[in-house]
Design goal:
This protein is an alpha/beta fold. The chain has four domains: 112 residues, no CATH class; 145 residues, 3-Layer(aba) Sandwich (Rossmann fold); 77 residues, Helicase, Ruva Protein, domain 3; 100 residues, Chromosomal Replication Initiator Protein Dnaa, Chain: A, CATH 1.10.1750.10. Strand 8, helix 8 and strand 9 form a beta-alpha-beta unit.
C-alpha cells in the first residue's frame, strides 16, 4: 500500500515504516472498468460485515474514503498518522476484500494523504424534545497552552501522554494520577493541544468526569443516549480529567467501560487523570478499574527542588515578572520548606508577590526584589507585614539555632566535634556576620571559642556548603534539608525572612 501526499503533489511516498508499507503493495491480475463506480462502496460494505461498522467508520471516517479509480483502490485520509493506522489495522482486510470482490483484476491499493472527507458519519437526527438551546458538556480548552515544565516528578506521565497523542505506536490508554495541584489538568491540555497540532482533522474531546456523569444522566433522562454515545465513541482521542468522579455511579461506570472498549477496539486513544491510583479509588467498578490499569499508569508527584527552581522563573515570566536571584532563592526555600507544596501553591505565592510588587512600585513590568518576596511571604503566611526588623542580637541567634537544631548551648564552647554541634557553630557564625555585623573575634567570644581562627574556618566551611547546596546529614530530624533551607527556616523563626 503506497501513500500519496496531496499537499506535495501526486508523487507516491512511503511512510516511515517501510516494512509495513511494502506488505500492502499487493496487485491482482486482470481488469474490469465497468464496476469501478461502486467497487469502493462494495469494499466498505464488506468491511462493515467482517471488521465492524463502528471500527471502519472510526478508521476511515465515511464511505467516500474508499474509491476505485485508474486501476487502483484509493483510500483517502487526512494525515499520515491516519494512513499509518489504516495500514496497521485494516490493510490486510482491505487486500483480501479487494481480491474477493474483484477477482482477476490488477488493483493496487493506495492511501492518499490530503484534504478528504475524513469526518464522523452524519448522526441520525435526534428526536425533537425542546427548542431550548442544548448545553454542551465539553469545556473549551484554552486557546494557547502554556509550556509544560518537565522534571523527574512528571517525566513518565508527560512522555506517555505525548506518545499517546502523537505517535502511531503510542499507548492506547494512559492513566495519570497525583495529588491536587501537581499539574494533571495542564498536562491533559498540553496532550490535547499537541494532538490537534499533529492532526488538525482529528476528532478530539476534552471533558471532565463530572461532565461525563451529568451528560450521561441528562441523555438517559431526555432519551438521547445514542447521541451521547456517538459523541464520545466516534473520536480519535478522548481526554477525561478527574475521572475518579464516576466512582459509585453504577450506570455511568458501565457506560464508561463500554465507551473505552469501543474506542480502543477502533484504534482510538484515551488519556485519563485522577487524584488516585485506580486501585485506590473507592467504589470503582471492578471492570472499570481493570480497564484503567490495562494501559500506562503514571504518577505525577509534587515538584522536587530542581523542578521548583525552573517552575518559579517560568511561572513568573508568564505574569511579566522578573525575580532577582535572592528573591528567587527565597521563594525556593519557602516552597521546599512545605513538603506538601504543589505547583498550585507556587502560583499562589507568585500571585501574592505580584500583588505586593504592584502595591509597592505601581510598575506593570515588575522587577521583584527579595524585599518584595519577603513581604509577600509574610502576608501569605499571616505574619504582620511591616518594616524589616532592626539588627538582631547574637544571643537571640544562638538561642534560636540551638532550639531549631536541638543543641545545648554549653556544647557550643566545648571541645566536642559532634556533627550537629559543628553545624550549629557554623550557622551561628554565618547568621552573626549576616545580621549583626560582629567581628570574628567577637563571635569567637560569643561561642566561648579559644581563638577566632576557628570561627573564620567555620564561616568559610559553611559558605562552601551553601554554594554546593548538598543535603545536610548530621543524624538529626532535619537531615535531607539543604543548608540554604535550614538557614531560611531559622531566619523565619526569628522574623528575619
Amino acid at each position: 500500500m503506497t501513500h500519496r501526499d496531496e499537499t506535495r503533489g501526486d508523487t507516491p511516498c512511503r511512510t516511515h515504516n517501510s516494512a509495513q508499507t511494502d506488505r500492502f503493495n499487493t496487485t491482482h491480475a486482470g481488469s474490469s472498468a465497468h464496476d469501478d463506480a461502486d467497487l469502493g462502496r462494495r469494499v466498505i460494505g464488506r468491511l462493515n460485515e467482517t471488521v465492524g461498522a463502528d471500527r471502519v467508520r472510526r478508521l476511515l471516517g465515511s464511505d467516500d474514503a474508499v474509491r476505485c479509480r485508474d486501476g487502483s483502490i484509493e483510500i483517502r485520509v487526512s494525515d499520515k498518522f491516519s494512513a499509518d493506522m489504516v495500514e496497521r489495522r485494516l490493510g490486510d482486510e482491505i487486500r483480501r476484500t479487494a481480491a474477493e470482490l474483484a477477482p482477476g483484476r490488477d488493483l493496487e491499493i493506495r492511501v492518499r494523504v490530503g484534504n478528504t472527507a475524513h469526518r464522523p458519519a452524519p448522526a441520525p437526527a435526534a428526536p425533537a424534545t425542546s427548542t431550548t438551546p442544548k448545553r454542551t458538556d465539553t469545556p473549551r480548552p484554552r486557546p494557547t497552552v502554556p509550556e509544560y515544565i518537565v522534571g523527574a516528578p512528571n517525566r513518565v506521565a508527560f512522555e506517555a501522554c505525548r506518545r499517546a497523542a502523537c505517535e502511531a505506536d503510542g499507548p492506547s490508554l494512559v492513566f495519570i494520577h497525583g495529588a491536587c495541584g501537581v499539574g494533571k489538568t495542564h498536562l491533559l491540555r498540553v496532550a490535547a493541544s499537541t494532538a490537534r497540532r499533529a492532526r488538525p482533522d482529528a476528532r478530539i474531546r476534552f471533558t471532565s468526569g463530572e461532565q461525563f456523569v451529568s451528560g450521561y444522566v441528562r441523555a438517559i433522562r431526555d432519551g438521547t443516549a445514542d447521541a451521547f454515545q456517538r459523541k464520545h465513541r466516534r473520536l480519535d482521542l478522548l481526554v477525561i480529567d478527574d475521572v475518579h468522579v464516576v466512582a459509585g455511579k453504577g450506570g455511568t461506570q458501565q457506560e464508561l467501560v463500554r465507551t473505552l472498549s469501543d474506542l480502543q477496539l477502533a484504534g482510538a486513544r484515551v488519556i485519563l487523570a485522577s487524584d488516585a491510583h485506580p486501585r485506590d479509588i473507592a467504589k470503582l467498578h471492578e471492570a472499570l478499574g481493570s480497564r484503567f490499569v490495562s494501559g500506562v499508569v503514571a504518577p505525577i508527584s509534587r515538584p522536587d527542588e530542581d523542578m521548583v527552581r525552573r517552575l518559579i522563573p517560568a511561572l513568573a515570566k508568564r505574569r511579566g515578572l522578573i525575580l532577582d536571584p535572592r528573591g528567587h532563592d527565597m521563594l525556593v526555600a519557602r516552597v521546599m520548606e512545605d513538603d506538601r507544596a504543589t505547583v498550585r501553591d507556587i502560583e499562589g505565592i507568585l500571585t501574592q508577590v505580584q500583588a505586593m510588587g504592584n502595591l509597592m512600585d505601581h510598575d506593570r513590568a515588575l522587577f521583584l526584589s527579595a524585599d518584595h518576596v519577603r513581604r509577600a511571604v509574610e502576608m501569605r503566611a499571616g505574619a504582620r507585614p511591616g518594616i524589616r526588623p532592626g539588627p538582631v542580637s547574637i544571643d537571640r541567634i544562638i538561642d534560636t539555632v540551638c532550639a531549631e537544631l536541638g543543641v545545648a548551648r554549653p556544647d557550643l564552647g566545648g571541645k566536642g566535634r559532634a556533627k550537629k554541634v559543628v553545624l550549629a557553630r557554623e550557622i551561628i557564625v554565618h547568621l552573626g556576620k549576616r545580621h549583626t555585623g560582629r567581628s570574628y573575634p567577637e563571635l569567637a567570644m560569643d561561642l566561648s571559642r579559644p581563638n577566632h581562627s576557628t570561627v573564620i574556618t567555620a564561616h568559610q566551611r559553611f559558605e562552601a556548603k551553601l554554594k554546593n547546596n548538598d543535603p545536610v546529614r548530621v543524624g538529626a530530624s532535619f537531615d535531607g534539608c539543604c543548608p540554604g533551607e535550614l538557614v531560611g527556616r531559622i531566619e523565619r523563626a526569628m522574623g528575619l525572612a
